């Protein structure tokens, strides 16, 4: 993973098996995010699912610091800390479940979102777009992250899934992991009508580009 300062990224990884066995497991993983990811980037949205996770983040100068380790000369701080989260969590689950090996079978991916939407533009609706306009990857990714539990059939309402940032944005919880003010600068959603707009269908074509 390589990050550029101020850019938005969709970070995700999926396992071929269960990742979170209990509520305590979810909370433990969140504590790892709080300790290792929160200090080195701006988290704009997140969701933890039984066998995968999604993060929408803005990289900062701190994210891009080269840690200058001999065996990893080009590794950046955010990339290293993502690895720390997954490695330490895997070790904990291996002890809990008496298992061995990697818990996440795939490499963590960081998809950079369209640069045109890194800074809000005025004069047109970025969600609906206009003839010749580029897709709004940031808003689509944000909506998809929060809709994931419903799309996967785990719950019928977005607020019924405890382990996403939707509850924080919708006012059901006052979590500190996400930067809500900053998120609204990048996604085409109105805080006043956030709940209704969050149930808007995402564009399948844009999703295919987010998950090539």
Can you give a write-up of this model?
The chain is of the alpha+beta class and 212 residues long. The chain has 7 helices and 4 strands. The protein has one domain: Alpha-Beta Plaits (2-Layer Sandwich), CATH 3.30.70. It has helices spanning 23-36, 77-97, 137-151, 166-170, 180-186, 194-198, 204-210, and strands spanning 8-14, 41-49, 52-59, 109-112.
Task: From the structure above, extract its key features.
212 residues; alpha+beta; Alpha-Beta Plaits; 4-stranded antiparallel β-sheet; 7 helices
Number of domains: 1
CATH topology: Alpha-Beta Plaits
Shape: globular
Integer-rounded radius of gyration: 17 Å
Q: For this structure, what is the CATH homologous superfamily?
A: Transposase IS200-like
Q: Average the pLDDT over all residues and give the rounded result.
A: 87
Helix percentage = 25-40%
Main sheet: strands, sense, barrel: 4 strands, antiparallel
Query: Which CATH class?
Result: Alpha Beta
Produce a short descriptive summary.
With 212 residues, the chain is α+β, with helices and mostly antiparallel strands.
């Amino acid at each position: 993973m390589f990050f550029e300062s101020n850019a938005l990224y969709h970070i995700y990884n999926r396992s071929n098996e269960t990742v979170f066995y209990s509520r305590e497991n979810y909370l433990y993983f969140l504590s790892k995010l709080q300790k290792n990811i929160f200090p080195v980037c701006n988290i704009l949205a997140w969701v933890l699912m039984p066998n995968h996770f999604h993060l929408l983040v803005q990289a900062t100068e701190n994210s891009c610091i080269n840690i200058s380790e001999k065996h990893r000369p080009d590794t950046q701080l955010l990339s290293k800390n993502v690895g720390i989260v997954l490695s330490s969590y895997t070790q904990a689950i291996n002890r809990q479940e008496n298992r061995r090996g990697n818990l996440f079978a795939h490499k963590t991916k960081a998809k950079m979102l369209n640069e045109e939407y890194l800074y809000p533009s005025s004069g047109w609706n970025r969600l609906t777009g206009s003839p010749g306009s580029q897709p709004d990857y940031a808003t689509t990714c944000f909506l998809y992250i929060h809709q994931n539990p419903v799309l996967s059939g785990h719950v019928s309402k977005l607020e019924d899934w405890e382990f996403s940032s939707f509850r924080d944005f919708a006012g059901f919880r006052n979590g500190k992991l996400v930067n809500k003010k900053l998120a609204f600068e990048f996604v085409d959603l109105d805080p006043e009508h956030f709940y209704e707009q969050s149930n808007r269908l995402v564009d399948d074509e844009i999703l295919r580009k987010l998950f090539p």
